[in-house]
Every structure is written in structure tokens, then in C-alpha cells.
Design goal:
13 helices, Ribosomal_uL1/biogenesis, 4-stranded parallel sheet, Ribosomal_uL1_3-a/b-sand, Rossmann fold, alpha/beta, single chain, 12 strands, Proteasome-interacting protein CIC1, 3 domains, 4-stranded antiparallel sheet, about 400 residues, Ribulose 1,5 Bisphosphate Carboxylase/Oxygenase, proteasome
């Protein structure tokens, strides 16, 4: 015999059937392909139109500096609230010193045309070989076998001595595009590098594991180069992720890697935040939308409507607490407003004598200020007229 269906069971089934399907965190590949194709066509069109100098009408022999940056590709993620209010790190008020590390499917850095080198900062206590010229060192293998552009490998001691002068430190940061720092000394970096270094992602140290082991250091650098990128926590609700230069994704395989990277990066944000929309763009191009969240937009509209309703209520409350006694408008608090409602109308002037006196005094002062302004205005006009003569 089948078990009886209770009212509670029916209610649960009805609620389950009404439940909306969760929003998919996967952006369709075709949409991303279409966006990339559109940006490529835009760049090609711009290149064709800008081969001719607008002023002279002749073909350009030397390209502008900006031309090299036009294909710089960015993934733009828009959150419902500012990112620095919607993160765990923001609660510690250290978002400025901690970059956001993002997982990728393949290397983004190898597609950045202007990428220089990786600066590596390790603990003073490190004993293993970090000589780039020594064929037995792990760093040598990273540079020559894995083709990872490792630059200087320094310690806090060097930062305190050799790179203490401002110009030396400035040049060190300018020569590198990424800083990877031993996580055991990451807290020393604000003091050693200076606060201004943390204004840009290229000079913000990204923590990695070293554990006093050359293999661990090598693995951490490889992992970052091949499977990670980083971005700064913005003050607002818009975050940019650098995807490299679009024209460097020249083969079909490169384009597949780009699409996978966009999907993987977008998914991380969609799972963690209430993302409103995601766009692709190159420098100087229009933005191309690849995702928007209708639920997020509705929540944003609802929150704004709630805030407006609250503001209207407060304004209405102020209006309600304003009354007029013998031609003088006064503002009453909640207690005095209640007293006003029950008091004898003939005694109102006596009960609220103090408030009426203050209101009259304030009105007289405002009136005096208006008169002074009226007197000053013609005098200013006369002075200007005299100067012209």
C-alpha cells in the first residue's frame, strides 16, 4: 500500500516545483567567440583607417605609441556593490596590500607583449642556489628550459641596502612586470617597497610558497606563470583583468586557450560575487557584453528603491513634525508633536514660546542676510562697470 501524501509533503513538492533554476556560471563559447571576432574586426578597421595621417593625407611611416596598446585585451567584471566592501580581505582593511589571485586555464602572461621579467623576493635565510647562470640551479632551468622570464632574485636585506635609494628601487620595479614574494616575508614589503608600490598590480608583491626549498620555489613560479594571474581590488564595483594582447592569440589553439581562460576567470567571479555584468574590450574599443545577470539587476533596482523609500519616509517625517503657530513655522520633536496634538489651541503660543522665539530669530537672521546680498550685488556691478571704463 502506497504511503499517504500529507499536506506538508504536497506543500514541499509545490515549493520545489516553483523554485527557479539557478543561474548558470558558464558563459556560452559562441558568445565569447563572437565577442572576440567583433573586437578583431574593429581593430582591423581601425588599423586600415589610421594608416593614413588625418592632417597630411599621407601614409604613416612610423606608428604612434598608442597603436601598440590598441589590442590590449581586458575582461571587465561589474559587481553590484564595490569589491572592497564585498570581500573578506576588506574587513581587515588591508585590501590595498593584498592582490586578488585568479586561476587561469593556461598562461596569460605569455600573451602580454610588453611583459618584462618576474622579480622574485626570497627570505634572507634561504641557503639554496639561486644563481641564474649556474646550470645546476632550478632558476637556470626555469629560464632556459621552461622559458619563464625570471629577472632579479633578491632578499629583504638587499632591499634595505642596495635598493634603499629611491632611484635604485624605482628602476628595479620598472624593470619587472610581476613581483613574486616568499609568503613568510610578505608583511615586510609595505615598509621595504613603500606604499606607492602598491598602487599598481605590477609592483604589488604576490605571495608564493618557498619553504626554503628550490623545488617548491620553482613549482610556485611555474604555477603562477602557467595557471595564475592577479588583479588589484578596485575601490569601486568595476574590476579589470588583463588578458594580454589580442593579436598575440594568432592560432586556433591560442584562441581556444583564450576562450577557456575567459570562461574560467568569469566563473570564479560569478561563484563568489553578485556579478551584474561582464564585458570584453580592447584599448579604445567599445565594450562587448558577454554576460549579464537579470537577478542581480533586479536586486540592485530593489535596493535602490528601498533606499529611496526610506529617504522619502524620513523627509515625510520631517514635514509631519513641522507646524505653524500664529504664522510662525516651527519644527517639533516626536514628544512635542504629540503634545501639540493634545494641547488646547489657545495655549499653543505659551507652551511653545521658546521654539517660536528661536524660529523668529532664525527668520530675522536669514532676512538680514538676503538684504545684505541685495545691497552687495549692485555695488559689484558698479565696480565691474568702472573697471571697463
Amino acid at each position: 500500500m502506497a504511503p499517504k501524501t500529507t499536506k506538508a509533503t504536497k506543500a514541499k513538492k509545490a515549493a520545489a516545483s516553483k523554485k527557479q533554476e539557478p543561474i548558470s556560471n558558464d558563459i556560452p563559447e559562441k558568445r565569447i567567440e563572437s565577442a572576440i571576432s567583433g573586437l578583431e574586426k574593429y581593430l582591423q578597421k581601425e588599423e586600415d583607417t589610421e594608416k593614413v595621417n588625418e592632417k597630411t593625407g599621407k601614409f604613416k611611416l612610423i606608428s604612434d605609441d598608442d597603436d601598440e596598446l590598441k589590442d590590449k585585451l581586458q575582461l571587465i567584471v561589474v559587481n553590484n556593490v564595490p569589491f572592497n566592501e564585498d570581500t573578506d580581505v576588506s574587513k581587515t582593511k588591508k585590501a590595498i596590500f593584498k592582490p586578488l589571485t585568479i586561476t587561469t586555464e593556461s598562461s596569460v602572461h605569455s600573451h602580454i607583449s610588453e611583459f618584462k621579467k618576474i622579480l622574485v623576493i626570497v627570505n634572507d635565510s634561504v641557503k639554496f642556489n639561486t644563481d641564474k647562470e649556474d646550470e645546476t640551479s632550478e632558476i637556470y632551468k626555469l629560464i632556459n628550459e621552461d622559458k619563464i622570464p625570471v629577472g632579479e632574485i633578491i632578499t629583504p636585506k638587499k632591499l634595505k641596502t642596495l635598493y634603499k635609494p629611491f632611484e635604485n628601487k624605482r628602476q628595479l620595479l620598472a624593470d619587472h612586470s610581476v613581483i613574486l614574494c616568499d609568503d613568510s616575508i610578505i608583511t615586510l614589503m609595505p615598509k621595504l617597497l613603500g606604499g606607492k608600490a602598491f598602487n599598481k598590480i605590477s609592483s604589488t608583491p604576490i605571495p608564493i610558497r618557498v619553504r626554503n626549498s628550490p623545488i617548491t620555489l620553482s613549482t610556485s613560479i611555474k604555477n603562477f606563470w602557467n595557471k595564475k594571474t592577479a588583479a588589484k581590488y578596485p575601490n569601486g564595483s568595476t574590476l579589470n583583468v588583463n588578458l594580454g594582447n589580442l593579436l598575440t592569440y594568432s592560432t586556433e589553439e591560442d584562441k581556444k586557450h583564450l576562450i577557456e581562460n575567459i570562461k574560467v576567470i568569469a566563473k570564479q567571479f560569478l561563484e563568489k560575487y553578485m556579478i551584474r555584468s561582464i564585458f570584453l574590450k580592447s584599448n579604445f574599443s567599445p565594450v562587448v557584453p558577454i554576460f549579464y545577470n537579470e537577478k542581480s539587476l533586479k536586486e540592485l533596482i530593489k535596493s535602490k528603491e528601498t533606499a529611496k523609500a526610506k529617504q522619502d519616509e524620513e523627509s515625510e517625517e520631517v514635514i509631519k513634525n513641522k507646524v505653524e503657530i500664529n504664522g510662525v513655522e516651527i519644527e517639533l520633536n516626536a514628544f512635542n508633536r504629540a503634545l501639540y496634538e493634545i494641547a488646547n489651541p489657545e495655549e499653543l503660543e505659551t507652551i511653545f514660546k521658546k521654539q517660536i522665539h528661536s524660529a523668529k530669530k532664525r527668520n530675522a537672521e536669514d532676512s538680514e542676510e538676503d538684504k545684505n546680498e541685495e545691497v552687495k550685488a549692485p555695488a559689484k556691478k558698479q565696480k565691474k562697470a568702472a573697471k571697463k571704463d
